[in-house]
Amino acid sequence: MLSGNPSTADKENLKNLPLCNPSSFFVKRVFFFAAPCLLIWSLYFLAFYPGLMSGDSFSQWMQIGSFHFHDHHPAFHTLAIFLLTRLWHSPAVVALFQAVSLAAIFGYALALFEEIGVPKLALRLSALAFCLAPINGMYSITLWKDVSYAIALLWLTILMVPVLTSRGAWLEKNGNQFVLVLSLILVSSFRHNGIIPFFLTILALFLLFREKWRPLLKVAFFSFLLLFLIKVPLYHLLGVGPGASGRLLTIPIQQVASVLAQDGEIAPRDRVFLERIMPLSDWRKYKADFVDPVVYNEKMLAFLSYTPDQQLRKENNRNFLRIWLQAVWNNPKIVIKGYRSLSSIIWQVDQPHDSYTYTCEKGIDPNNCGLHLGLESHSLSPRLKALLLSFIAWTEQPSLVWLFWRPALSLYSTLLFAFLLMRRRGLSYSLLLIPSFANVLSLLISVPSQDVRYMYPTILVAFALLPLALSTKNEKTSGPNHAASSSIPSSSSTRRLTFY
Q1: Are 110 and 127 in contact (CB under 8 A)?
Q2: What is the pTM of this model?
């Protein structure tokens, strides 16, 4: 639990850090930092109009056209797309909303950091790097749930900053509680694995700010209540169908396939069970860095699909999990080698020589929806598009992809930034790691391929923490009263705080 005894006036200053009642000056600073992003990303928007889309995007787009939803891709995110397209039935409206949201949240982060004393040079360099990074230009206009989820998780992470700098006093304001609940709901509902950052962030807040249990109890109560109302009555009212079952079996299926493909040790009776799921020839389509050939084989999907016979389904799942555990126990080298390849997108900085890195979409994939759903590229500047595609291809070279795209550099940078913050400002700043590292934890048990998008939250958080880590301000002191006062901005250096 954090120590320190700020005065009543200081508490008011701190809990009113700009968010719910910003002054016109603060809004101008947010726009100052967000404007370069909007300017640069507008070039991507013009070049790749009306946005970038893949098969996942088509699935959600067809659902909003038919108003028949299912939860394979989170239905809440599909509903958000549906609401946006009531304004303009085009992928462009989603692309624009994502770009503006990302720019605004990052602009808010830098304006907030400026208020708490981060050097302006660090903020401006960070803003420049953020807006010029090709991943942000391409992803800001890509219709993926992963992008919306990453933006929400960045927002949640940034909200931890005023919580920390105010030693929890920020939580006492109802408007701030509302914003925190909203960010938690978006994180938990835009991707299925978002439930892990949702839970762990709430838990970390309770552990670090036990004396603020009353406002935190309100945040937790309304977060869980809204999540329940979305997942149960709202989904029931809209007739949302279930998503693909067996999502948590992705890694076990992949590991069993690795053992079969390499003639590892599996009992004969277990081989018979596995061949009833699909022939051995299909199991041997296994790719170490990509689950689709096995997990999304139509025979495997039939095995995983819903059946009215719940008893049979439970028995099949139990048998498969038993076989998987036995296969792991008997073939540890095969399983570990395969898992290293599959998870390398998370932790390996350079691209493995025998693997790949799926960076981004380059347009709207060919689809059978174009005639009546409008899913076709119509670049507003073909020359600009060609120039940007050449630039993207240059960044995707094996010698450069680690720097511009692969997320492991951001993962380790985030760890370094957090270490610096904890050393200078106290261990409580580990809270800034919780949302993004909870996402990493969820990927370690579910990552399906070498797609950068799964780790996009970590990349965004690394950009956001960079200027904060560069600040040399040291809040660690020996005495609790001094510690409290050192975190409170002086009236001369941050006089604008009193305006909120």
Answers
A1: yes
A2: 0.90
